[in-house]
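[audit] Reproducing an earlier prediction to check determinism. Same input, same settings, fresh worker. If the tokens differ from the archived copy the diff job will pick it up downstream; this log only records the rerun itself.
[audit] input (339 residues):
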Amino acid sequence: MTKIRAAITGVGAYVPPYVLTNDELAKMVDTTDQWIMERIGIKERHILLEEGKATSDMATEAILQLLEKTGTHPDEIDMLLCGVVTPDMQFPATANIICDKVGIKNAFGYDINAGCSSFLFTLVTAAKFVESGSHKKVIVVGADKMSSIVDYKDRNTSPIFGDGAGAVLLEPCTEGNGLIDSIMHVDGSGRQHLHQVAGGSLRPATFETILRRQHFIYQEGQPVFKAAVSNMADVSVRMMERYNITPETLKYLVPHQANMRIIDATAKRMGITREKTMLTITKYGNTTSATIPLCLWEYEHELRPGDNIIIATFGAGFAWGSTYVKWAYDGSKFAKPAE
């Protein structure tokens, strides 16, 4: 029996038009362009400023582009999963809201939150539905309005995050391309180093939690950095060894875009150069759930059927993983996104 794999057959993305530069950020918090570039590697980030707009609106734009590029009608979609840290609201699921805004009527879906690893965890989950034969066209979208939980008085976290969305279409493939394998992990003891203090059932919103600014991102940089470097690199190297992938046979590493030093350390452990590493961090920052699909969107025009790519990610939880993908279509027919 021919094995069914879940293949990525299209990519769409969206970033809001407003660009927050390091120089402008320096007017809001005690920082400089040099400090941010040396420690993080981010030059600018896109921020969703429009009143009344949320994560679902960015996801909708990315999916509409995806549907147009792939010639897919909303009625053909039978599942939509959303990787997200900043849902529109606690309930209903942002995936449900997106379906309504896009006009997807014949699908079911839900949200998955694995911090910055949300997109990859969601992609791996969605792939199982395709591999089982039960679903033919599945959209996986990663989207976050991180500006809604960033404290712009905190010099340690405010330079890191931006807003954006990216989506892929998964379809069955019997020609050997698609998601080949994944190594996924969580370690809940890491939650103390990276979390949102208040807003959940443990500490519901009160006047006091708002005054204490506890509804923003809390991050202890050093423990997170050390865990991200070791874990992202470990699973990526293991994946290369498992499938005898060499730096020469690897087309691209697709790393989560959190910190340039983390990315460089992971690539070094894998024995690859920056030329084989997808990078969008300089102009988009850390868009959390959107970083991986934004990378695929930016580099789509360089990808060809059979190309070996390894996706690696690390996020709050701690949650991390690596997925080996053989690319399924010729991306040269799509122009590189405009700068």
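[audit] rerun output stored. Observation attached for the diff report: DSSP finds ten helices and 13 strands in the chain.
[audit] end
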